[in-house]
Amino acid sequence: MPPGLEPAELPADAVEVGRIADAWGVKGWFKVLPHSASPEALFTSRRWYLQPSERGAKTFNGTVQLSIKESKAHSNSVVAAAHEIVDRGAAESLRGARIFVARSSFPAARKDEYYWVDLIGLSVVNREGVALGVVKELLSAGPQTVLLLEYSETDEAGVSKSLERLIPFVAAFVDDVDLKARRITADWQTDY
Questions:
Q1: Which of the four, 5, 97, 145, 189, has the lowest number of CB atoms within 10 Å?
Q2: Which residue range(s) make up the domain with 93?
């Protein structure tokens, strides 16, 4: 295990937000490849949890915690410094590590903005109250985001099969997102 790192428990609300790409400079800074184009969670959280990469050499096992001193945008990535990582060698030992942040430490979303992680698992109904499916994931499709819904349908033989439906996540089709009720209302029909 890299020096200074202590085993930690991954929070129940942890969300993977990026990976450590490599060391950056000689003073223990490291380069991060965020999973989001808007990596605010990396900038606001002072406690990151790391797990080793699924592939390649592993310098530690399980989950460890980093106390972040500073993080900032740099080119198309993020660079960060942690109290526990004091030189280039220690930073290099984190290469490939997956970064998790507790969802509770994310900054509050603005009105009519949502974190993708909060939308996954929500039920989607149309204006008539007909169930359209459950949000399985979100896809970035150029200028807009698309909801990928999963739903079941029973054929004439009584066999249930799992299907998928796509709905653009734009105001023209999405009427309401109710995170407390875990429901999205959309102007969409089952035969679209």
A1: 189
A2: 6-105
For residues 179 and 131, give the distance between their C-alpha atoms in angstroms, rounded to a whole number. 17
Q: What is the pTM of this model?
A: 0.72
pLDDT (tens digit per residue) in 150-188:
999 888 888 999 999 999 999 999 999 999 999 999 999
Detail the DSSP E strand segments found in the chain.
6-7, 14-23, 30-34, 47-51, 64-74, 77-82, 98-102, 123-126, 131-141, 144-154, 160-168, 174-178, 183-186
Per-chain mean pLDDT for the chain: 90
Same domain flag for 93 and 12: yes
Do residues 49 and 23 share a domain? yes
DSSP helix/strand/coil, 180 = coil
Q: Longest Cα pair distance anywhere in the chain, in angstroms?
A: 66
